[in-house]
Amino acid sequence: MPRTNLNDILIFMAVVDAGSFIAGGQAMGLSRSAAGKAVIRLEDRLGARLLNRTTRTLSLTDEGRMFYERGLQILASVDEAEASVAGQNSTPRGVLRLTVPDAFGRLVMLPLLEKYLRAWPDIQVEVSFTDRPIDIDKEGFDLAIRISATTTLDTRLVSRVIASYKARLCASPSYLAERGEPGDIDDIAAHDCLIFASRNQRQGWRFRGEGGPWVKAQGRSRLRLDSLEAIRDAALAGLGIALLPDFLVADDLVAGRLRQVLPGLETDDAKIVALYPDKRLLDPRVRRFIDLMVEELGDQGQARNRDASSG
Questions:
Q1: In angstroms, how far is CA 66 from the centroid of its own chain?
Q2: CA dist 165 to 18, 104, 209, 265, 268, Å?
Q3: Does the pLDDT value for residue 264 go beyond 70?
Q4: How many domains does the chain have?
Q5: What's the pTM?
Q6: What are phi and psi of 194, to 5 degrees?
Q7: What is the average per-residue pLDDT within 91-110?
Q8: Which stretches make up the HTH lysR-type domain (predicted)?
Q9: What is the CATH number of the domain that holds 230?
Q10: Integer angstrom CA distances of residue 179 from 187, 222, 248
C-alpha cells in the first residue's frame, strides 16, 4: 500500500493548529482550496473523516484527534532528531529554567548543576525545588525532572527516563518495636502508611513476591505529604511505614535509623524522568543538561559512582 503524502499530513496539522482552511493554508503557503483538497486526499487515503466541517467552524472527529496527537509525536521526534545533529557543536548559552523534586534536587541534582555550570561558562540556571505538579509552558520552564513512582506524568509532554532507583519499604526501629513488623503484604493493612499525595494525585503501593503477581497494599493512610523528604522525616520520627527511593534512605538504612520492611518483596522502581514540551526544538542548553544527567545518573553512571565510592 503506497505511503501517505507527508505534506498532506503537515497541511492537516496546520489547518487544525490555525482553526481554519484559510489560515492553515496560508501557514503552508497554499490557498484555502489547496489546503482543503490536501485534507480530503488524506481522509480518502485513511478511509476516515478527520474533521467535522460547518460553514463557520472546524472540529476534530475522534479519528482526527487521534491522528493529530500521533502527528504531534512524529513532529517532536523529527525536531529531536534535527536538534541532536544540529546541536552537537552548538555552545549552550542563556538561562536554563529547571524544576526538580525537592529532595532529589538537593541531594542529586545540585552536584550535577555544579558540573554543568563549570563546563559551560555562558550558562545561567534558575531552579525551582518542588514536588508539586508543574505546567511547564504556563510557568516558563525549559525542563522538568520528576519521579514517576510518586507523580502522574503529563501525557502532553515528551518524557525520557534518565535513571531508575530501587524503592525501599522502611520504618524506624521505634515504630516497629511499638507496632510490630509486618510478616507479609496483608499485614500492611494494620499499619500507618506514609503516602505521597499532591492535589488530586496519590501514590499507590504495589508489591510482588518471587514469581507472583503484583498486589496492591491496603494500608491505612492517616498522614499524607507532598514531599519525599517530609515522608522520610516522618518515618524517622516513627510515624509510620514509608516507600522511598534508595537515594533518599540509603544512609539511614546503613546507619540503622531506618529498617527495611519485607525486604523479599519486589517494588516498583522510582524512575527519574525528564519532561519537556513536545513541540519545542530542544535548545543546546537543555540537550546538554539531559546528556549530563544520562551520563552521570544512568545505569553506567550509577555503576561508576558505586565503584568509586567502594574503592
A1: 22
A2: 43, 11, 19, 15, 9
A3: yes
A4: 3
A5: 0.61
A6: -90, 105
A7: 90
A8: 4-61
A9: 3.40.190.290
A10: 11, 15, 24
